[in-house]
Specification:
Elements lengths: L2 E5 L4 E8 L2 E8 L4 H16 L8 E5 L5 H18 L3 E4 L1 H11 L4 E9 L2 E10 L3 E4 L4 E4 L11 E4 L2 H4 L9 E2 L11 H13 L22 H11 L1
Parallel strand pairs: 1-4, 4-5, 6-10, 10-11
Antiparallel strand pairs: 1-2, 2-3, 6-7, 7-8, 7-9
């Protein structure tokens, strides 16, 4: 299986290529400028592996949740590459990629959490699965950190920068969080792993069918909402 994966949904910009001989990957925390960097990173991993797009089996694309602009870049670049090379695409979420990091590290269950800004988080819970890598325990969600309720099937190993941004999450019953896990961001290497499993299971999509996962349709607070949020933190 030859699977390219890319993600521009968060502060990180990452590309990975899974082949029968190894996993090649590049990840940079850039903050901005994802659109200017992503294609060069794709070229770099293909060159390192000695492959061209037409030799691949598919492309795994991050569909979010994450920054609105970043999610759109990830989806549109994957679509453009896949259309040009006549490849299927596979959708992978940022929360799934985060959770797989924890599961590969030995966790049986993981709670992935990203800072959604505006006082909210994106989060989801997952359990390890020997065939599919992981399975979701419910649906991904967005909401205030103080309102998160962990499924009773814990304990879950917490991972993602949502835990660093909102300490209240680290005190949730049934959640175990290490210091290093609070700094974790999604990585295309894990998206490539999940993408290969899903493509092999027949879950490839026509590029036109790839759609972003936004979870919410609001990108900024009003002045009154920012003032209220600031007061709530005092």
């Amino acid at each position: 299986m030859r699977m390219l994966a890319l993600d521009t949904s968060t502060e990180a910009c990452s590309v990975a290529l899974l082949t029968d001989t190894g996993l090649f990957g590049i990840s940079e925390e850039v903050g901005r400028g994802h659109a200017e960097r992503i294609l060069g990173m794709v070229d770099a991993v293909l060159r390192e592996a000695g492959l061209v797009l037409g030799m691949l089996d598919g492309i795994a694309a991050s569909i979010g949740p994450g920054a609105f602009t970043g999610v759109r870049i990830s989806v549109s670049v994957a679509q453009g590459l896949a259309f040009g090379a006549q490849l299927p695409v596979v959708a992978v979420t940022t929360l799934e990629a985060l959770a797989l990091q924890a599961i590969r590290g030995g966790a049986d269950q993981a709670m992935a959490c990203l800072d959604a800004r505006m006082g909210e988080i994106y989060w989801g819970c997952f359990t390890a699965d020997p065939e599919r890598g992981l399975l979701a325990c419910g649906t991904a969600a967005v909401g205030a950190a103080a309102e998160v309720i962990v499924p009773f099937t814990g304990p879950f190993h917490g991972i993602g920068r949502g835990f660093g941004a909102y300490p209240v999450l680290r005190a949730l019953p049934g959640v175990i969080v290490t210091a290093g896990a609070c700094a974790a961001l999604p990585d295309a290497r894990d998206m490539a792993r999940l993408g290969a499993i899903r493509l092999d299971a027949g879950e490839g999509l026509d590029p036109a069918e790839l759609t972003p996962m936004y979870l919410r349709d609001k990108v900024a607070l009003t002045e009154a909402e920012r003032s209220a949020a600031k007061q709530a933190l005092q």
